[in-house]
Known about the structure:
The protein is mainly α. The protein has helices spanning 18-33, 54-65, 88-100, 111-124, 140-149, 197-207, 223-233, 273-278, 283-291, 306-312, 327-339, 343-356, 363-373, 383-391, 410-425, 432-445, 450-462, 470-477, 479-497, and strands at 5-8, 37-40, 104-107, 155-158, 165-170, 174-179, 187-189, 212-216, 239-243, 246-247, 323-324. It binds one RNA strand through helix 4, strand 6, helix 6, strand 11 and helix 11.
Amino acid sequence: xxxxxxxxxxxxxxxxxxxxxxxxxxxxxxxxxxxxxxxxxxxxxxxxxxxxxxxxxxxxxxxxxxxxxxxxxxxxxxxxxxxxxxxxxxxxxxxxxxxxxxxxxxxxxxxxxxxxxxxxxxxxxxxxxxxxxxxxxxxxxxxxxxxxxxxxxxxxxxxxxxxxxxxxxxxxxxxxxxxxxxxxxxxxxxxxxxxxxxxxxxxxxxxxxxxxxxxxxxxxxxxxxxxxxxxxxxxxxxxxxxxxxxxxxxxxxxxxxxxxxxxxxxxxxxxxxxxxxxxxxxxxxxxxxxxxxxxxxxxxxxxxxxxxxxxxxxxxxxxxxxxxxxxxxxxxxxxxxxxxxxxxxxxxxxxxxxxxxxxxxxxxxxxxxxxxxxxxxxxxxxxxxxxxxxxxxxxxxxxxxxxxxxxxxxxxxxxxxxxxxxxxxxxxxxxxxxxxxxxxxxxxxxxxxxxxxxxxxxxxxxxxxxxxxxxxxxxxxxxxxxxxxxxxxxxxxxxxxxxxx
RNA sequence: GCCCCAUUCGUCUAGUGGCCUAGGACGUAGCCCUCUCAAGGCUAAAACACGAGUUCGAACCUCGUAUGGGGCACCA
Length: 501
């Protein structure tokens, strides 16, 4: 059996799309499972869409996810170069070879004519949309005339067989049959000398000895053309599987940056890999999650490592149907990874998020609070709201009314605050256990429910109704700062309690 | 308009002719735990798109219909 060689072939048009990431993951898992090679190839054949720095975004993203490549940019390999713009002569040679063989032809049609033809075809409801094969059978005189008229600018189009059928054997879907008369004479080589995807992917997959093509479902309609190209070249076509697409979370349409990127609860859903990263998702969670959409482990396992996925990965288990992007499941899964993480490591990962939010982070305090927010956050970014009470430069309690708990009044609240202050200020040590024992005792002695006093103190020290566990929070905050905040709460309550004059 | 693909709980999925009174997970609801919020534990509601075949037997095979998705560029 031929060695397994698969490729991931993104275009450098910006950050990776999460759908592309999953395609990369499936290819990578397949390669690793079969001890084959995973090749990264950059398809930068559209100069108009080229984005500066996009290549770095792609390689960085793949590395972040732990998807290493055996051949490709930065690592090289025996089949290079792996960037298509550096392989131009090959495509030109092969395109010209097809012309010489009578299997392709030069087309001199202008963009205006093409647009017009397309419009007419659309309006007339013609069976075959697109190009009308105007230049397919030009006489030499006509060709020469057009050549002169257009200043020698032309594209090379593939001469698609006009009859018969082309069958694609898809590893996931079985045989897919197309009538050749439904298929267009696609452009192989553009007028700027760059190849189109159709030519480049065939030439490269063949010359790089790719054994299996796993690409997105939207390529199915052009697969027969690619097959015909392989036949025209006399090359064996790699095995092929079309992977299902990722749909928007509401199931409406292909997941994309531009279309509805909102889930049913109205939240914005990330689409690009860097958006997931910035939102505070972990690479191991993204890997695990993506592997469960369109593929399943086999037993009922949902949480598994990349190594386990390699072991279990089978193309046959890939579900060919497109799937709505289950963003809520990602949240849950990311949460499980956060909970299982070493607190110290988690703290390191959270730190940059806090700094980006403009906070100056005390690392000791961060390490102290992390174990208490760990089971409360689903993304790293959520650590901001849970810990901001620690980092604010000047603590202000904007709404002293919030101190007053249910079934209590301002006077009672004030008394409780003063009482709690006295208890805490006299504590020998400020460990959370000591605080809790003392405050519980105080509540009991004064006929208050412990939770009432706790919540008053929570608001007083964090200015939030919801916080990490109170005494742990105060312990991390420190005795001095905690007491100072409680004093401030007392002051503000006294002030607002005075009858206005 | 034409071509192509797909169709199991709200969502992601298990299921490859009898093991299915259809399993798991997320989400949802209830209860327990509890200093808020979580996490955790328990419980519940929730699906084979429809119609014809094939077969002793169909979620699984075939054909139609419906619905959803993809494609019809000198973009990939």
